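This section describes the prediction task in plain terms. A model, or a person checking by hand, is given the sequence of a single protein chain and must write out its three-dimensional structure as a string of tokens. No templates, partner chains or ligands are provided. The sample shown here is typical of the held-out split.
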Amino acid sequence: MVDRVFSHSSSSPSETGGRFPRPPQADQQMELMLDIDREDYRFALEQASDIICRTNLSGRITFINPAVTRILGYAMVEVLGHHIAEFIREDYRAKVWWFHVRQFLRGRPSSYLELPLIARTGKEVWVGQNVQLLQRDEEVIGFQAVVRDISSIKQAEQALRASEEKLQSFFHDAPIMYFTLDREGTILSVNRSGAEQLGYTVSELVGRSILDVFVAEDRPSVKNQMEVCLASPSVEREWELRKVRKDGTTLQVHGRTRVVPGSDGRAVMLVVGQDISERVRHEQALKEIYQQLEHRVNERTSELLATNEVLRQTTSQLQTLIEEAPFAIIELDEEAKVVSWNTAASRIFGWTEQEVMGRELPYIPDGDKDEEQSRHLWQSIMGGLPVRNVELRRRRKDGAVVEVSFWGVPRRNSEGRVTGAMAFCIDITEQKRLEHQFRQAQKMEAIGRLGGGVAHDFNNLLTVINGCSALLLDRVRREDPLYHLIDEISKAGARAADLTRQLLAFSRQQVLKPQRVNLNESLRAIASILKRLMGEDIEVVLELDPGLWPIQVDKGQLDQVVMNLAVNARDAMPDGGKLTLSTANFVLHAWTPVSNPLFTPGDYVQLTVRDTGCGMDHDVRSHLFEPFFTTKEEGKGTGLGLATVYGIVKQSRGVIFVDSAPGKGTTFDLYFPRFVEEETETASTAVSSPERGGERVLLVEDQEAVRDLVCLALEEYGYQVFKAANGDEALRLAAVLPHPIDVLVTDVVMPRLTGPMVAERLRQRWPGLKVLFMSGYTERVKPMFLNSPGTLFMQKPFLPTELAAQLRRLLDESF
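The expected answer:
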């Protein structure tokens, strides 16, 4: 064309009269401009990135540019003359045809439409086309379309839609309550599982005040939590409060509150709550996402960027919820490879996110049985069946065993096919440990009750045995052959009495005489005894806090505790060693973690008994305080020493801990409450030998042998005794006596009418009546009876001389 242009404009210099050619004529100029326009138009059509297509009114293609080859793979000659519908996906053909018909009938100069075309390879290509009417002399002769490839935009839309479906599914399947609140506490959103746990629908809660779902007593605390949270947006608040369901029932909820940015940029309060009253349903909730995408192709790019920003904010909120969740959230693909791993998972199992991503779960089932259970759970979830609240044992990275409550749900794609799993693991190790402690405490309590019952029967028998042997020894000369046999019976009875006293100490049913005690002084007083007891090859060291607080305990029982622990330490150091007894003041704060729920906050005095002996393994420690449990050889221990220590400490309102390992020695830590009130103590009058008397005594005892023995003993000491077998008989006897009695000697535990009940009835008749209680089983002896004026107590078994001395003290002293 350039040649043609130059050929039309060339002339010789002689013809122009100078060095420049003459300008072409007007018709030559018009022809030159048309050639240039046609060349530019052809170049534009050939280089255009969009398909430019013309059809006649019947839809057959009359013109197509080379872009059809790049986009659809067809040569231009393969397309010309064909109907446009042949290249449209079959289900869209009718829609496209009616689009052209409507445009023609309505006379619209141009319109926009998105449709799928079929490439030469069979691949589907989404395009957006602007269609214009072709007119000649105001008559429509066909259509012209500019077709642009929008497949990448469509793919982005589909990826965005799949991500939203995944987030929404996670939001509704998580076993947790999620709320978002405005600054006034109005509920902006709540997940479906959270609403269901409270008995509401989502629409019933949105718009209401968050205070409506808390019990009335906890609402001031909720307000305070919100105010503090808003005042310190960067600080997370943790709380435990009670929520009320729609039906009026309540549940205890552990929650966290923090301020997060909302989708519009304004601050909202995010409240995450977990039901801890039942620990059987833990549903996690996520914020609902509703976004519609209806955009024109020329606006797709900017709108997609805006949508991506919203998705980024939503993903950020979702990531915050996942990372702040108090339990492990793990996502797995079809091959059981880790796709996501939150902070709680790292805390519970020990592996970081970088260590597990793209790998199979690293934690190891604790045994073949648990491994088989894990395979079964995986098969169930991949089969589309959710798994809820299954307790599993797993090993952490450091080898420690952790127990979890496992929840698993299938992860599905947009077509509903299972493509993996979402796992929620709640650490219940501490809960299981407390349950074990509770069962152990119940077992110890049951053993204690059994020991108390056995001691009651033994004490009645020993009262008779020891009392009769004592009376016989007074009547038999030492040179008599029977004296030795009776003395052996007496000694055996005394040893049996010691055993029953240890059983009562373990079962916490002996009568203590608490008094203000300086623990340092008590340890110094028995230090010399301890050194002789331990032997020359064991060093005894006292490390005493000079500013030690006082405690209130039975001093004799406290000495027994120290002696029993010292004996236990001595047996653990057969080759010698070191025994250290130390004291210190100890303050237990409310926030201090403790392993014993009975160890309540307050001031305590700590006694530590530490040895350098052989130590104990876990199995021995778990049975350490059980009566009759011993690791010593047969005949070298009763197994009641540490059980007695346990009982005395518990009855003194204290707690005891033990720390030991094989080859590491043993440490016992005892904590006694600090004594903060001064109490006057009545000094007891020691009686070296009982005096005789002549007072009138009413004896009530349901055990015939004990009753006869006590009656015989009292009569020998000069008392006038009236005896009754039970409370009813005692009241009938008292009603016919012509003179008042001076003292009531009665057993505590009897059928129908107990000793305290008999004493109360008789004191209504004789207000100044003095009472001496007897019992081998003191569980029913209440302080109100023992602290009454004119009242004393005797623990069975006792000797006749001890009974006479106590009775004389009761009658002679003023109360």
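For orientation: The CA atoms of residues 92 and 460 lie 102 Å apart.
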